[in-house]
Structures are given as C-alpha cells and as structure tokens.
Amino acid sequence: MGFYRNPFSSFLQFLLTILILTPHSQSAPDYTSLVYKGCAKQPLSDPTNAYPQALSSLFATLISQSSKSRFYKATTQTPSITGLFQCRGDLSNLDCYNCVSKLPTLINKYCGKVMSARVQLLGCYMMYEGAGFAQISGMEMIFKSCSRANANGAGFEEKRDTALNSLQNGMSSGFFATSFGDVYVLGQCEGDVGASDCVQCVKSGVQRAQVECGSSIAGQIYLHKCFIGYSYYPNGVPKRSSPGSGPNTGKTVAIILGGAAGVGFLVIFLLFARNLLKKKDIIKSNLNLQIKDHS
C-alpha cells in the first residue's frame, strides 16, 4: 500500500530547493569605505574656543544639504571656516546623505582640531579650511591607488587610454562614466569648477593615471579639484541597471522566486486533482466490489 503524500509538503520542498539553488543577491558597493584622509599639520588657533561650535554648525549645514544636493559649499561667519562636501554623480540622494553623514565623525577621529582636513570615502568626501590656510593648486595630486594586479592581455593599455581620452570629452556636466571594450572609466570635478578647468583637471588626472599606474588593471587618481578612475574587466564590463549599481541580481531573484511560486501552486493543483481522481477511482472500485458481493 502506497503512502499518501501531502501536496503542501511537496510544495514546501520545491520552494526550499529553489531557494538553495538560487544565487544570493550581491550586496551593493559600500560607498562609505575609507579611501584616504588628509589632515593639516597646523593646529587650530582658538583662544576663544569658538571653533568647535562653528565646525559643528558647518557640519550640520553640510549634512542637511546632502539629502537634496550632491555638492554644497558653505562658510561660517565668526570664526571664518569654509567647508564643502561632494558625492559621486551616480549616487542617489539617500546614498549621498548616508555617506556624508559619516564624514564629520571621521574627520574628528582622524584629524582632531587642525586648520584644514579632508576625508574621502568611496562615494563622497568632505573638507574644511580655516581662514588664512595656504591654498594649493587644483591639479595637485593628493592621493593615488593602483591595483597590484597587471593586465597580461595584448592591447590593454590602448583600450584603457582610449577610454580615458573619451572621459575628457564627456566632462561638460562635471561627471561622466563610460566604457570602451573591457575598460570602465569614471571622472568627476568639484562642483564649483568651471567646464574648461574641469577638462584640464581631468586631462592631468588621465596623464597621471597612465604614468603612475602603468599596466595595473585598476587605478584611481585624486587631484585637489577632480578625480578619475578606471577598471579593466577581462570578461567584459558588467551591465548596470542604473548608474553606479551592480547587476540587478535582487530583481532577478525576485522574478525567479515569483515564477517558482507560480509553478509551485500549479504543482499543488495538479497533485490535488490527481488525489481527487485517485479517491474517485477507489470509491468506484469499492462500489463495484459491493455490487459484486450483493449479486
């Protein structure tokens, strides 16, 4: 005699199998990862102890603006401190706010009370300068990062250089990202930099990337007023469902599970129908036996 199998149990086992076999959604890039920090050696001259309150007010203003803008610059009155933040052009307002919100704490942690400080995260940066602090050129390199891995394939540097050169032609809005072949490039200028100065800054960054990073498969060059970066993908640049995001694996998983649920309910229906047919056959068989017994 066969055992009756509950169709709901079959459905649950089916869904469990789908969940195990379905790849997990990849986490989004962590835009709050630290890239670099720069702290002036000159301490704050603060005989009236007014700087902490002024800085706190400046930070609060910058954070509040980050929910609606990717760049904002402000200056306190007394004492005079100028500060700004900027988010990557492909970040949403929420991502920008979450990124910028972490910066004041990091500035205090890494730099303390100094005349000027700058902290760069993967998705945003914040800086401030006290009045009278020495200015530097907008094209001065302040940080570089080159991958230790090198590209072995022929034609890499040509592809990279073509992609980087196209970057210079697309900087009219201050932010541009594109790909050429297997190379993805991205560039951005500080929000108050003019179009022509932006192009010159990016051009300088491109030249430095070619010299500093050589055949590295990835590199980032941060100048005072702009930054550029490139990444080489031997198997092709991953498709992005939106700027700055990875492949939309979360949506894919939802579609798979939705389809699995639909198939599961169909399985339940078929099992239930088959069970009814079996019961009808049993009843019919019993009736036939009863008729034979009475005959």
UniProtKB/TrEMBL annotation:
Localization, UniProt: Cell junction, Plasmodesma; Cell membrane
Gene Ontology biological process: plasmodesmata-mediated intercellular transport; transport of virus in multicellular host
Annotated membrane topology: Single-pass type I membrane protein
Keywords attached to this entry: Cell junction, Cell membrane, Disulfide bond, Host-virus interaction, Membrane, Repeat, Signal, Transmembrane, Transmembrane helix, Transport
Highest taxon in the source lineage: Eukaryota
Segments crossing the lipid bilayer: 253-273
Gene3D superfamilies recorded: Gnk2 domain, C-X8-C-X2-C motif (3.30.430.20)
Primary residence: other
Keyword field contains Zinc-finger: no
Cleavable signal peptide: 1-27
One Pfam family linked to the record: Stress-antifung
UniProt GO cellular component terms: plasma membrane; plasmodesma
Residue ranges annotated for the Gnk2-homologous domain, each copy included: 32-133, 138-235
Family the entry assigns: Belongs to the cysteine-rich repeat secretory protein family. Plasmodesmata-located proteins (PDLD) subfamily.
Name of the molecule in the record: Gnk2-homologous domain-containing protein
Species of origin: Castilleja foliolosa
Lineage: Eukaryota, Viridiplantae, Streptophyta, Embryophyta, Tracheophyta
